[in-house]
């Protein structure tokens, strides 16, 4: 398949720049992949669209305030976007800078803290904090790493709203956005209806926003992201399927986590990096449905949802969403694919 198969035209005004006042007020487009039927709903309707015995699988990663500002010793400005913390002192990061620093150089953060530049890995730089642990530096000086299509600076509200209410494990530099629509009231209503939940962890990297440059999508190499699927999730999935329930992944990150852990056959506990690239033709082994936001043209995320629902169905759904003025991308509306 070709990258251009996943192109569509989106009016810029449909890119959501702010979260709604209440998470569950987002719109929800219900899509049946079997007959490509569509239904316009509101996200708080979700409990009535699922059945008792269904299982929702969330991603419990927590977004780091991973955007830092620094200067080179010469005075040049540098914007740092952490990709991953490697240990207490080391990380890899993207740098926005007019002239890239050399290995052995240094960067000075806003409070004078020094970061050493140890070298490069493709588009990323290896940085090291000789003094304070990086996690402490990030919490003190970092800004929320809003996606590049949100054309504004981050605010105090983003510190709370660009996290899911189930976020527990720090490590992501982008939110698992399908989870942003859930609030505590909605979670309680789902529980009362007999819909269970469990959580995997996938620390979303900045590579999620990297474009697919290969024209043949089969030639694209996915960025690596760290994930964990615990034994408790494997047991919950097995129990759900044995009882006739459905496994509904909340977001593409939960999909990639579950399907990575099932690549060798049955679903098993997994901890480690994944470069799993899901595109049309992929054989899904775990999920029966997913909740997902609307994704960028020609993105790996759009390819993933097209693999599950079918490319024609996704084209039909996206055209409807644009006609009906749905809000797109991270702070936008959602789809339920079953």
From TrEMBL:
Residue ranges crossing the lipid bilayer per the database entry: none
E.C. numbers: 2.4.99.17
Pathway(s) it belongs to: tRNA modification; tRNA-queuosine biosynthesis
Keyword Signal: no
Organism superkingdom: Bacteria
Subcellular location: Cytoplasm
Catalytic activity: 7-aminomethyl-7-carbaguanosine(34) in tRNA + S-adenosyl-L-methionine = epoxyqueuosine(34) in tRNA + adenine + L-methionine + 2 H(+)
Primary localization: cytoplasm
Record bears the keyword S-adenosyl-L-methionine: yes
A Gene Ontology cellular-component term: cytoplasm
Keywords: Cytoplasm, Glycosyltransferase, Queuosine biosynthesis, S-adenosyl-L-methionine, Transferase
Gene Ontology molecular function: any one: S-adenosylmethionine:tRNA ribosyltransferase-isomerase activity
Enzyme class: transferase
GO biological-process terms attached to the record: tRNA queuosine(34) biosynthetic process
Function: Transfers and isomerizes the ribose moiety from AdoMet to the 7-aminomethyl group of 7-deazaguanine (preQ1-tRNA) to give epoxyqueuosine (oQ-tRNA).
Family recorded in the similarity comment: Belongs to the QueA family.
Subunit structure: Monomer.
UniProt name for this protein: S-adenosylmethionine:tRNA ribosyltransferase-isomerase
